[in-house]
């Protein structure tokens, strides 16, 4: 319940939604209210208000220690995985509980996507993780310009009211001390969306990967991203693989050039370590060469 | 970059899902395989979808999706072959096989049908169960393997696991021998079983339709190939042809049997019932896609070969249905015929035959001498003139009585009556047929045309149809419409117009109509001028302007004459102030070309009848009017038609006791002339027929008839005749009858049989036809010249066509007559034949 309340407030801060603070409600005449009501906004508002509200919920998604009260009409219509889990004659259809063996932070943001058509890189929630806040803000400025810095701070205050969320840092603390790298987060979100058959989320996360990767063609992030991309999805899933190959091809010079203070972003060992990437890259190089030769006759 | 700081990353998802080469494919498969078997054994509710899905996904991420696909395929095949197949084959009892072995569908299955039916339903329910289980399980398995399907069959290189499992069902359950030692497959038994149940239903038994429907939908859900093209559904490739073949045999036999029964109504009802049944069968039991095909079978086997015979069926066919007004049966028949023949030719033909036949009966009845009361002489028609046959005596004895009744305007001449009866009967027949057309034939246009043609055919076969129809109008406009409302009159006239539509020789009708109209107008017999005018406008709408032009000009003459009479009266009162003795004159000035010739006093030889000698008083009046009229319209010629006129005269009868009785007599102009003669002679003196004829110059026929009215008719004997006989002979002597008695002061003395509009005698008709042909010759010539003037040059064929096209609204020209007219025009150098091409004409200006 507390979670729901916090979220409503959080979502309300998107500017074009009418303010419903105690003072302004009084001032608003009905006419004024009408003028400020846009039909699409009404639906968004409704979605925001039912998000994780157990009142109309008919399905529970469980992940780790988190439980999310969701709605089949929202979830099953967007994901073949959830639809089939609910419609088949399996255990889930009678219990209306779906237990996911996934990273809880990803699942939480997937559900965020179901209701708001977007997601954030999950913050670990540590008050002292300043870099994370900076990180999140910079990401938000890229992808979600409507979210303000105030948004961030309110999220922090939310976590105090949310017992589950408050628990989380302890879980994470078991194997790691801090939170997620955004690039890695987006890549894994893509993998989850692919597994869950959520096309919209796939598209969004792929776009986020592209933007983030473009910024991070450095010796730390790049090899790791390639590793993630080639290990998080089956070989037949070409979305991120093509993205990685294209990005590499178009920034090859930058990636292979070392500056005085750092190593090259694309070290030779990457070719040995991820043979599938090497093969994709080889095909791309050949195609490029052939087309160039043809062009020059 | 701020994020360049080192960090520990969490990659939990990769740890739980992403494959590591060491993960054991076989271990995961083992879990999956037992779960898939669990689905088949209906234990799915204890299985977690998420877990199965995750396992399948893991195998795919190991890049071993295709292997998984093949393993599942093998597992399904094994399941179907070892478990499902035996369930199905075990449910097939020997009785079903026996029927399959003996393909003799015609044998009486009744005694064993109950047993076989029970076996059939048992087999079908097992098959249905099996199929539904398979569908449900495969649906679930496909869901679990969703991710595998996307990688393995996403690029269409492999059929989806669901499609594969359907093909497996087809090959491992349906297309396997029932017993190892037999060649008959489950599929064969399924087909023969459904056909057997359908046959049971056709024989009137209840069957389990939903059960069959389930099995059929199985056949519809299975395909010959994994490409699953629409046309390769098993239902279409295997069952449907068998069903249609069986139906073909069935309906062929049923058709033969129904024909043998020989009742058209039963045939139609049964056929329509079958059509309805098959439609329902297709929609409820089999497949809706079969409906057009089974309809074709019924049309081809049951209806098409038999419909002709049914329509003509003796004593029950169309003829009988029409006579008995069996509208429902006729509708059934129509529906059936319309299915197989857009033109409905057999029905149309039979209907047309019957209409013409009935029409002929009406024609014959009207032309045959009507049976007594009137004795035979009267039946030949009281002649108007030129008929001096011997049975005069008997005839005359009847006529006076008629005149008597005519005062009450009741009796109608018997032949006129039969003419009106002819019209009425045709109208009744038309109504009857129209009713059938409306209710049974769905207002079909083809049939409408055929009905019209049939009516036209027999109506025009009656040579006197134009005359009869005109008499019908005449009778109704004189008396029939009295006391009727406007609507009724309208309907009555419309009915007449309806028949006019059928009459081909509209000019002949016009001739008669004008003749009858002239008498109505001049004798003031018309009951309502409104009705007359209404009639004209109706005719104008139906036949056209040209047709009514002359008739309208007759009305115009009447109106002008009325004005003329008034202005003449005013003129006389101004010039000769006090002359009370002067008779009033009411005059009708008729344009000679517009009015019928016999009204204009022209006889056969086209010579005008010599004017009779008027008494002085009348002569003065006549001359006075002529002066008045010619003063106004110089250059015109007036000729007086005494035969058409009438006069009111006051007569003084001095009784033997010296009393004086006055009567007002309404007589014809000729009678007036005759009676005035007796003013000139002393009381008691006599005049002979010859004397009267000499003094008046009245044509002999008219004189005889007028004298008969005055001296023979019992109620109007103003003159005495010696000898007192019915005949008038030249030697007869006449004298004024002072003892004349009548209960009324006003006495109307009609002329014997001369002014009533009646059926013409043969001679008159020939006369009319002759006149008509003459007129037609002119019309044809005019048309030929008109066309040639416009076209300058035409072939014979084209000219003929155009002439016919122009004239058919008035009459159907005789081709020979048209040829003669063309020749005549060539002789008179209006046209010439084009030099070497004898068949082309050129117009000569």
From TrEMBL, chain A:
Residues 126-173 are annotated as: Disordered. Residues 153-173 have a biased composition (Basic and acidic residues). Residues 57-123 form the BTB domain. Residues 135-152 have a biased composition (Polar residues). CDD domains: BTB_POZ_ZBTB_KLHL-like (cd18186). InterPro entries: BTB/POZ_dom, SKP1/BTB/POZ_sf. Transmembrane segments: none annotated. This is BTB domain-containing protein. It comes from Penicillium diatomitis.
UniProtKB/TrEMBL annotation, chain B:
Residues 368-379 have a biased composition (Pro residues). Residues 381-391 have a biased composition (Polar residues). Residues 464-711 form the Cullin family profile domain. GO terms for molecular function: ubiquitin protein ligase binding. It comes from the Eukaryota. Residues 1-20, 364-414 are annotated as: Disordered. The keyword Ubl conjugation applies. Keywords: Isopeptide bond, Ubl conjugation. The keyword Glycosyltransferase does not apply. Residues 1-17 have a biased composition (Basic residues). InterPro entries: Cullin, Cullin-like_AB, Cullin_CS, Cullin_homology, Cullin_homology_sf, Cullin_N, Cullin_neddylation_domain, Cullin_repeat-like_dom_sf. One of its GO terms (cellular component) is cullin-RING ubiquitin ligase complex. GO terms for biological process: ubiquitin-dependent protein catabolic process. Belongs to the cullin family. This is Cullin-4A. It comes from Penicillium diatomitis. The lineage of its organism: Eukaryota, Fungi, Dikarya, Ascomycota, Pezizomycotina.
């Amino acid at each position: 319940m507390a979670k729901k309340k916090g979220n409503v407030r959080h979502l309300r801060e998107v500017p074009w939604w009418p303010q419903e603070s105690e003072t302004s409600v009084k001032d608003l005449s009905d006419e004024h209210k009408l003028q400020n009501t846009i039909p699409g906004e009404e639906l968004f508002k409704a979605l925001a208000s039912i998000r994780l509200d157990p009142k109309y919920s008919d399905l529970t998604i469980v992940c780790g220690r988190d439980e999310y009260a969701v709605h089949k009409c929202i979830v099953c219509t967007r994901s073949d995985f959830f639809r089939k889990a609910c419609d088949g004659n399996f255990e889930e259809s009678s219990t209306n509980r779906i237990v996911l063996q996934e990273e809880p932070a990803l699942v939480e943001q997937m559900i965020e996507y179901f209701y708001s058509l977007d997601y954030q890189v999950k913050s670990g929630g540590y008050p002292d993780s300043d870099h994370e806040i900076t990180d999140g803000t910079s990401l938000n400025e890229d992808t979600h310009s409507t979210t303000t810095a105030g948004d961030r701070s309110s999220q922090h205050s939310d976590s105090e009211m949310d017992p589950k969320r408050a628990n989380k840092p302890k879980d994470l603390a078991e194997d790691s001390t801090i939170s997620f790298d955004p690039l890695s987060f987006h890549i894994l979100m893509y993998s989850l969306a692919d597994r869950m058959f959520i096309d919209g989320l796939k598209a969004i996360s792929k776009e986020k990967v592209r933007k983030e990767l473009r910024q991070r063609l450095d010796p730390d992030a790049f090899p790791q991203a390639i590793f993630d991309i080639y290990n998080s999805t089956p070989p037949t899933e070409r979305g991120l693989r093509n993205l990685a190959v294209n990005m590499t091809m178009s920034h090859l010079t930058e990636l292979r050039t070392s500056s005085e203070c750092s190593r090259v972003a694309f070290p030779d060992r990457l070719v040995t370590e991820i043979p599938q990437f090497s093969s994709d890259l080889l095909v791309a190089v050949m195609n490029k060469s052939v087309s160039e030769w043809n062009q020059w006759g | 970059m701020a994020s360049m700081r080192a960090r520990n990353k969490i990659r939990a998802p990769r740890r739980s899902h992403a494959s590591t080469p060491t993960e054991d494919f076989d271990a995961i498969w083992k879990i999956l395989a037992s779960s898939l078997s669990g689905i088949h054994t209906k234990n799915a509710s204890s299985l977690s979808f998420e877990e199965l899905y995750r396992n399948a996904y893991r195998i795919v991420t190991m890049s071993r999706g295709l292997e998984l696909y093949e393993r599942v395929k093998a597992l399904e095949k094994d399941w179907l072959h070892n478990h499902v197949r035996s369930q199905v084959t075990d449910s097939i009892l020997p009785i079903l096989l026996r029927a399959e072995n003996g393909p003799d569908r015609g044998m009486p299955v009744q005694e064993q049908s109950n047993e076989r039916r029970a076996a059939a339903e048992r087999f079908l329910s097992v098959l249905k169960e099996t199929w539904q289980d398979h569908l449900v399980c495969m649906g679930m398995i496909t869901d679990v393997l969703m991710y595998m399907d996307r990688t393995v069959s996403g690029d269409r290189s492999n059929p989806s696991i669901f499609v594969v499992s359907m093909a497996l069902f087809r090959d491992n359950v349906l297309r396997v021998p029932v017993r190892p030692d037999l060649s008959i497959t489950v599929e064969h038994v399924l087909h023969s079983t459904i056909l057997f149940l359908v046959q049971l239903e056709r024989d009137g038994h209840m069957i389990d339709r939903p059960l069959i429907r389930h099995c059929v939908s199985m056949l519809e859900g299975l395909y010959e190939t994994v490409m699953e093209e629409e046309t390769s559904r098993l239902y279409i490739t295997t069952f449907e042809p068998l069903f249609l073949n069986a139906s073909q045999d069935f309906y062929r036999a049923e058709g033969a049997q129904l024909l043998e029964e020989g009742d058209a109504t039963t045939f139609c009802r049964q056929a329509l019932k079958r059509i309805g049944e098959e439609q329902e069968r297709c929609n409820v039991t089999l497949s809706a896609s079969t409906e057009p095909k089974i309809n074709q079978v019924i049309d081809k086997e049951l209806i098409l070969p038999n419909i002709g015979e049914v329509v003509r069926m003796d004593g029950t066919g169309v003829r009988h249905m029409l006579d008995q007004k069996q509208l429902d049966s006729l509708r059934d028949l129509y529906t059936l015929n319309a299915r197989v023949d857009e033109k409905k030719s057999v029905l149309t033909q039979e209907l047309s035959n019957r209409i013409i036949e009935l029409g002929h009966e009406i024609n014959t009845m009207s032309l045959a001498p009507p049976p007594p009361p009137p004795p035979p002489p009267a039946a030949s028609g009281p002649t108007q003139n030129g008929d001096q046959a011997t049975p005069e005596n008997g005839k005359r004895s009847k006529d006076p009585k008629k005149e008597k009744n005519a005062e009450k305007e009741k009796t109608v001449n018997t032949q006129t009556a039969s003419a009106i009866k002819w019209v009425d009967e045709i109208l009744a027949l038309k109504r009857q047929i129209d009713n059938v057309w409306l209710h049974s034939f769905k207002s079909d246009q083809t049939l409408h045309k055929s009905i019209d043609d049939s009516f036209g055919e027999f109506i025009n076969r009656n040579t006197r149809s134009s005359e009869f129809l005109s008499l019908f109008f005449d009778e109704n406009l004189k008396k029939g419409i009295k006391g009727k409302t406007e609507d009724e009159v309208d309907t009555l006239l419309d009915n007449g117009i309806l028949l006019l539509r059928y009459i081909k020789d509209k000019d002949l009708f016009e001739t008669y109509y004008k003749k009858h109209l002239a008498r109505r107008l001049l004798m003031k017999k018309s009951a309502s001028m409104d009705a007359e005018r209404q009639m004209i406008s109706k005719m104008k709408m139906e036949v056209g302007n040209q047709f009514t032009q002359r008739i309208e000009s007759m009305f115009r003459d009447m109106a002008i004459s009325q004005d003329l009479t008034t202005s003449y009266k005013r003129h006389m009162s101004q010039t000769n102030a006090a002359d009370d003795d002067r008779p009033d004159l009411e005059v009708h000035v008729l344009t000679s070309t517009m009015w019928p010739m016999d009204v204009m006093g022209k006889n056969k030889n086209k010579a005008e009848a010599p004017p009779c000698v008027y008494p002085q008083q009348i002569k003065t009046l006549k001359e006075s009017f002529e002066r008045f009229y010619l003063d106004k319209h110089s250059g015109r010629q007036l000729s007086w038609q005494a035969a058409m006129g009438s006069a009111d005269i006051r007569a003084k009868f001095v009784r033997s006791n010296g009393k004086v009785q006055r009567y007002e007599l309404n007589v014809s102009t000729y009678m007036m002339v005759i009676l005035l003669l007796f003013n000139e002679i002393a009381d008691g003196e006599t005049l002979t027929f010859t004397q009267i004829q000499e003094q008046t110059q009245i044509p002999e026929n008219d004189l005889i008839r007028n004298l008969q009215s005055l001296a023979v008719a019992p109620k109007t004997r103003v003159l005495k005749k010696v000898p007192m006989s019915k005949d008038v002979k030249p030697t007869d002597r006449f004298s004024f009858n002072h003892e004349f008695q009548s209960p009324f002061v006003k006495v109307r003395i009609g002329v014997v049989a001369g002014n009533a509009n009646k059926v013409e005698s043969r001679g008159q008709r020939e006369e009319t036809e002759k006149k008509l042909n003459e007129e037609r010759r002119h019309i044809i010539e005019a048309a030929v010249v008109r066309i040639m003037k416009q076209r300058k040059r035409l072939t014979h064929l084209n000219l003929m066509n155009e002439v016919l096209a122009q004239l058919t609204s008035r009459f159907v020209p005789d081709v020979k007559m048209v040829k003669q007219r063309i020749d005549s025009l060539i002789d008179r150098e209006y046209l010439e034949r084009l030099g070497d091409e004898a068949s082309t004409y050129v117009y000569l200006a």
